[in-house]
Design a protein that fits this description.
The protein is of the alpha+beta class and about 300 residues long. The two termini are about 35 Å apart. The protein has nine helices and ten strands. The protein has a six-stranded antiparallel beta sheet with strand order 1-8-5-10-3-2. The longest helix is centred in the first third of the chain and has 35 residues. α1 runs antiparallel to α5. It is globular, with a radius of gyration of 21 Å. The chain has one domain: q2cbj1_9rhob like domain (Jelly Rolls).
Length: about 300
């Protein structure tokens, strides 16, 4: 290759990198502007420092009640019983545990579409995993008293360790019933997102006899949420009082990460119609995701919309 051709190629590569870098900076500016408009700058500081942040009063009382009703309907479908969330002490999942995970809830009631698009947590999620992020899963940890409801500390990030320097996933955990330690709240380890690894077996212990002293409860009222970085160590404490702890875990991932749930190509038509003019909703459900082609090959219009950096 001639010296002139090499120089031309280098110039093209430089221009391409500058273009990609500019797109990412524009995306970050949009996200930070939204965070400032919503009054979430202190939450961003908390997130960067602790690896998680709490946002109060995201859901209305009506949204909380509608979500709880839809989840109780799923439990009744699964078990044949209507559970009283105030008094239940003997709930057991099909696996015999005192906690069950109610999966794939997005299409059970339109309230879950509203929760997915809640502006404040979605702004923090965009800061963590970019505007191009997708919904990985949306479900409920339905939890009664008992040690089999404990979830050991872990990070949501999967793959080789140490983890990447930026988040691959982000979790939004809504309280649908009061969250305290004795009520079986989510447990979080402040600053653990900086460890860039999974906890060791000893570090992950959350039994009554051997609780990691660094773990703190997420104290939340119904309608509050906690948002955390995918590297942050978290789990849950044993519920020690009667009744059910209900949450809604809305889990997001960067667009190149395999999602827990499948949404592309299976979103119900009535759901798409409700959000026909909402490009962010469709992007969250990977409706126009570029990958997954067959003999027809890629759609290059979709390819051009793929993420180029941390924030876009």
């Amino acid at each position: 290759m001639s010296e002139q051709m090499t120089e031309s190629t280098d110039q093209q590569d430089t221009m391409s990198r500058l273009f990609v870098d500019d797109l990412d900076k524009q995306a970050l500016a949009r996200t930070l502007t939204t965070i400032d408009r919503l009054g979430l700058n202190d939450n961003l500081t908390e997130l960067d420092t602790q690896g998680y942040t709490t946002i109060r009063g995201v859901l209305s009382e009506d949204q909380v009640e509608r979500a709880r009703t839809a989840l109780l309907n799923r439990v009744e479908e699964n078990t044949g019983k209507r559970v009283d969330i105030e008094t239940a002490t003997d709930f057991q999942s099909s696996m015999g545990a005192s906690m069950d995970y109610l999966h794939y809830m997005l299409y059970e009631d339109p309230v879950f579409e509203e929760i997915l698009m809640a502006e404040e947590p979605l702004a923090i999620v965009s800061y963590l995993v970019g505007e191009s992020c997708v919904l990985s899963s949306l479900g409920c940890h339905f939890k009664a008293p008992g040690p089999t409801g404990i979830v050991a500390l872990h990070a949501d990030t999967r793959g080789p360790q140490p983890f990447a320097t930026h988040a691959q996933t982000a979790n939004v955990n809504y309280a649908l019933t009061p969250y305290t330690r004795e009520a079986g709240a989510t447990a979080l380890v402040p600053g653990s997102h900086r460890y860039a690894r999974q906890p060791t077996p000893l570090e992950s212990g959350l039994s009554t006899e051997q609780c990691n002293p660094a773990a703190v409860p997420a104290d939340l009222a119904p309608g509050d949420c906690v948002v955390w970085h995918g590297h942050t160590w978290h789990g849950s404490f044993e519920r020690q009082i009667p009744g059910i702890r209900m949450n809604l875990a809305v889990y997001f991932a960067r667009s190149h990460v395999v999602t827990q749930e499948r949404h592309k190509d299976v979103v119900p038509r009535e759901v798409l119609d409700r959000h026909a003019n909402d490009e962010r909703f469709k992007r969250l459900l990977a409706v126009d995701d570029a990958y997954g082609w067959q003999r027809e090959g890629p759609d290059y219009t979709q390819m051009a919309r793929m993420a180029t950096g941390w924030y876009d």
